[in-house]
Every structure is written in C-alpha cells, then in structure tokens.
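Progress narrative, work stream C.
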Amino acid sequence: MESSWMGKAIGIFEFDNMVACLVAMDAAAKAADIAVQGVERNRLKAGACVKIRGTVSDVRAAMEAALAAGAKYGTLTGKHVIPAPSEDTETAMQATILK
C-alpha cells in the first residue's frame, strides 16, 4: 500500500452494478483531492466496492458527489467514512487491495 495513504480518511461505497461504481468513482475524483485506493468487484454480483483516501473534508465531499452521481445508474448498497483508521483497519485495507 502506498505509504502516503496511511492515516488518511477512508471513504467506502458500493453500488449494485459496475457502471454506477465507475460513474461514482469518476465524480469523486473530480470533486475533491482524493486518491482511489482500490475497486473491488463483488464476486457473486455485478457491483463493486470503491475505496478512496484523502483528508476527512475531501473524502466527505468526494463521497457526496459520488453517491449523487452513482444513484442515477444503480442502487447504493453500502457507504461509510472512516475519519481516522486504526492500524488494524490499515492492515485489512491492504489485504483487500492486494488480494
């Protein structure tokens, strides 16, 4: 995992289809100074989970834009912002990115 992401806020959102995820991810990247850490396709469904990193304010702004844009193309199945991830959360994030 890129060390510059360590300790940065995490934004996670999931839509029921890949088109909605890609549209949402694009909107997030254009709305704020964030980095897309990973996109994880659901193994049993058509959707995906997108993980973004940045400052708390940038992640919140990016999430707002992403959710609005993605909602036009699919159903949101989950979302959350982790403002200050723990070391264990960082380890788990690395495991899901590199799997």
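Work stream C, second folded protein:
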Amino acid sequence: MSYLGLDENKTSKTVEELNVLLADYHLYYQKLRNFHWNVNGINFFDLHEKFEELYDDAKIKIDEIAERVLTLRMKPTSNLSEYLQKANIKETGTGISDSEMIKILLEDHGLLLKQMRKVAEVAGDGGDEGTIDLIGAYIRELEKTSWMLEAWKMKTSEQNQPA
C-alpha cells in the first residue's frame, strides 16, 4: 500500500466505514428488487421501471465500493450474515403500498447519505482523496434521486386528495 501514500491505520478505519456502506447497499439493492417485484396499482408501470433503474445503479455501486476496498489493499465484507449485522438499513416485507415503498426508500436514502458522509469524513482524516471523490459523486446522485422521489410522492399525495 506504500505506493498509495496512505497511512494503513487510518485507511483501515475508512475501510470499516466502506464495509458498512457496502452492507447498506446490499440491503438497499435487495429491497429495490422486492419493491420491483411486488409493486401494484395505478403507479405500477412508473415504479416498476424506476425500481429496476435504481437496483441496476445500486448493483454498480456495490461493485465499485468493494473494488475501492480492494484498491486500498483490504478485504470487502462479502457474507450476507455480516451485511445483516453491519447494515444501518433493515429489510422490508412485502404487501406494502407504492407510496409506502417510496417513503421507505426515502428513509433509506437518509441512512445511506449519513453513512456516505461518515465514509467521506473518515477518508478525509486519512487523506484518502480517491474515496472522497467516489463517495462525493454518490452523495450528489442520491440527493438528486431523493428529490425526484419526493416530488413523485408529493404529486401522488395531491392526486389522492378529495376535490
């Protein structure tokens, strides 16, 4: 790791937080698959497609986070049992409404953003600009996605109001 010019002790703290983010993204990914498969109702077509778009994006981020850990010459967490223990995000059952799905995703986005900021802070303490750059882009993208989902939620709430 000497070619990276990073302190191994500080980098191990960054990797700990990256592994939590990796666990979060695995649960988020599976939740999106669940919602994609189980969404019903008037918003089916829009949300079925959106959930697929989001889980495709999450799958890419899972790989990039794991590869960042490997770039830092450490091991990414790779067991489901460890993901369930480490993750801030929790599993969700089936049989919930489309608007509840969006509400849950927005809550999960808040957890992801909080963990991303923690990763960036720890990486900053270790002088790890590569991780900061990766996570900064994720934050920007997730903030925009959250704004769009929130706008959809407001629109559907207005449609459900009595005239």
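The mean pLDDT is 94. No further action is required on this item.
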